[in-house]
Amino acid sequence: MEISEQSNNISDINAEVDNTTILIRNLNLKYSKEDLRRIFKECGEIKKISLIKKEKNLIDAKISFESMESILNVIESKIKLIKI
Q: Cβ contacts of residue 9 below 8 Å, gap of 6+?
């Protein structure tokens, strides 16, 4: 199910929430899936990385982990992206 901007049904929105996925917005286009895997692998097992190209030289990255514990590790480690 895809959530549209017109959806006001909170149960539809909650059904789409995935507590093992993070979204990182406005990354430099130079970042690859391999770069992000290398940066975040210490937080836990990564299930999938998706890159979404945006305007100019920016991308969004969606990183799905195997467990909620991995998400907590991301938050606790305060990972800072390095310049490539």
A: none
